[in-house]
Design brief:
Blueprint (H helix, E strand, L loop, with lengths): L1 H21 L12 E4 L17 E5 H6 L2 H9 L4 E7 L2 E3 L5 H4 L8 E5 L2 E7 L4 H17 L3 E5 L3 H5 L16 H16 L10 E5 L5 H4 L5 E5 L15 H4 L1 H4 L8 E5 L19 H8 L9 E5 L10 E4 L7 E3 L17
Parallel strand pairs: 1-2, 2-3, 3-7, 7-8, 8-9, 9-10, 10-11
Antiparallel strand pairs: 4-6, 5-6, 11-12, 12-13
The structure holds 2-acetamido-2-deoxy-beta-D-glucopyranose (3 copies).
The site of one 2-acetamido-2-deoxy-beta-D-glucopyranose has 4 residues, from helix 7.
Length: 346
C-alpha cells in the first residue's frame, strides 16, 4: 500500500514536471521586464520606435491583422522582442476581424447581452464548446500573425452574473459561474500551450485582471496583466485592497517566476488642454501612488497610462523612476485602424 502511494505520487510529480517542461518560455521573459502597451491605435511603422528598451509589447491582435508590417517593425529594433497580443476573450465586438463569423445564424445563440451597455460588444457563451472553440481560434490567429503570447480580456463575466444588485440585462445572459470561467480559461491555456510560436517557443497566455482567480490560475498561466491594482481611481468603499497582492503568486511562483504587468491610471498624466500626453508626467501625489514601492507589488512591471475613451491605453506612457520624467509617446497612425483585416485566417 505504502509502495503504491509512493509510486503514484512519483508518477504524478513526473507528469506535472513533464507538463511544466512543455512550456518553453523565451529568455528574459521574467518579473520586472520593461514593457509598453498600446491597444488604442495602430502603430506608426514609419516613425522611430520608442521606447527603445522595452523587450515586451502588448498590442491589439486585430490592429496587427490590419497592419501586419507591425511585427517586422518591432523585430527590426529588437529581434527578440516579445509580442503580446491583446484580444477580447469574453466578448465579441463589431470591430473584431471575425465579427462576420459570429453573425452566422448557427452561432446567433452564442452571443448574449451588451457589455457595459455598448450594443456593439456582446458577451460570449463560454459554457458552450462551440463558443470556446471560436474564441480559441483567436489564439491560433495570434500565432499565425507572429505573436508570442496573448492577453485575453474580459475573463470575469461571472462577476456580473454573481452580482445580485445588477438587473438581468446587465448580466452576461448565460449565468456564468466562477467554475465556468476557470474551465474556459484552462481550455484556452491548453490550446495556447499546444501552439509553437514562429520564434520556436510555446505560445504563452496571461491572466487579465479577475484577481479572485489568481490563486487558482497562477500555476497554469504564464504572466498577468492588471489595471489599477493600486486603486488610484477606485471608490474607497470598494474593497479591492488585496487586488495587487493576489498577483504576487505569479512573481513568487516556482520553478518559474512569472512577470506581472501592471497599469496605473493617474489622471494628471493627461494634458487637459490637448487631451494628449503631459510631457512632465503625473503630478507628485499620483506619481507616488502609482510608483512608490510596496511589498505586494515588488517585481511588478508598472506603466502609467492615460484613462478616457479616445486615449486610454494609447502611446503615452510614463515609467516609474523619477517624478517629472520617464514619459514616452509611441507614435501611432490612427488612420490605419480602419484598414481591412488582411492577415490571419478568420
Ligand atoms: C452550443 O452552441 C452551438 C451553436 O449555437 C449549438 O449548436 C449547440 O447546441 C450548443 N451546445 C449546447 C450544449 O448547448
Ligand atoms: C445596463 O443595460 C442597459 C441595456 O443594455 C444599458 O442601457 C445600460 O447602460 C447598462 N448599464 C450599465 C451600468 O452597464
Ligand atoms: C492539446 O494537445 C493535446 C495533445 O495533443 C490534446 O490532447 C489536447 O486536446 C489539446 N488541447 C487543446 C485545448 O487543444
Amino acid at each position: 500500500m505504502k509502495y503504491f502511494n509512493l509510486s503514484t505520487s512519483f508518477v504524478t510529480s513526473w507528469l506535472l514536471g513533464l507538463c511544466a517542461a512543455q512550456v518553453n518560455v523565451p529568455p528574459g521573459f521574467e518579473p520586472g521586464v520593461k514593457w509598453q502597451i498600446d491597444i488604442q491605435h495602430s502603430l506608426d511603422t514609419s516613425a522611430p520606435l520608442v521606447p527603445t528598451d522595452a523587450p515586451v509589447w502588448d498590442l491589439d491582435l486585430y490592429f496587427i491583422s490590419r497592419n501586419p508590417d507591425t511585427v517586422a517593425y518591432l523585430r527590426e529594433q529588437n529581434p527578440d522582442v516579445f509580442i503580446m497580443c491583446y484580444f477580447n476573450a469574453g466578448a465579441v465586438q463589431e470591430s473584431d476581424c471575425d465579427w462576420d463569423v459570429w453573425q452566422r445564424p448557427e452561432f446567433s445563440r452564442l452571443l448574449g447581452n451588451a457589455l457595459n451597455g455598448f450594443p456593439d460588444e456582446r458577451w460570449v457563451n463560454i459554457k458552450n464548446q462551440t463558443g470556446r472553440d471560436l474564441i480559441k481560434k483567436r489564439i491560433t490567429v495570434a500565432r499565425e500573425l507572429g505573436c508570442d503570447g496573448v492577453d485575453p480580456d474580459n475573463i470575469d463575466g461571472y462577476r456580473v452574473d454573481e452580482d445580485d444588485e445588477l438587473p438581468a440585462q446587465n448580466k452576461t445572459g448565460f449565468s456564468l459561474s466562477e467554475q465556468d470561467e476557470l474551465t474556459f480559461i484552462r481550455d484556452m491555456a491548453q490550446h495556447a500551450h499546444n501552439l509553437t510560436t514562429t520564434r520556436g517557443f510555446t505560445m504563452l497566455i496571461g491572466q487579465k485582471n479577475a484577481a479572485p482567480l489568481a490563486e487558482a490560475l497562477f500555476d497554469e498561466l504564464d504572466f498577468a496583466v492588471l489595471e489599477d491594482c493600486k486603486g488610484l481611481n477606485e471608490d474607497p468603499e470598494d474593497d479591492e485592497a488585496n487586488f495587487c497582492a493576489q498577483f504576487r503568486r505569479y512573481i513568487t511562483a516556482t520553478p518559474r517566476a512569472k512577470p506581472v504587468f501592471s497599469i496605473e491610471y493617474p489622471m494628471s498624466l493627461r494634458n487637459p488642454d490637448t487631451d494628449g500626453c503631459n510631457p512632465t508626467g503625473a503630478k507628485e501625489s499620483e506619481f507616488s501612488a502609482s510608483c512608490d514601492p510596496r511589498p505586494e507589488t515588488q517585481g511588478f512591471s508598472t506603466v502609467l497610462k492615460i484613462q478616457g475613451d479616445e486615449e486610454e491605453l494609447n502611446g503615452c506612457t510614463q515609467y516609474c523612476g523619477q517624478l517629472g520624467s520617464g514619459v514616452v509617446v509611441t507614435a501611432e497612425d490612427p488612420a490605419k485602424d480602419d484598414n481591412s483585416c488582411t492577415a490571419g485566417t478568420f
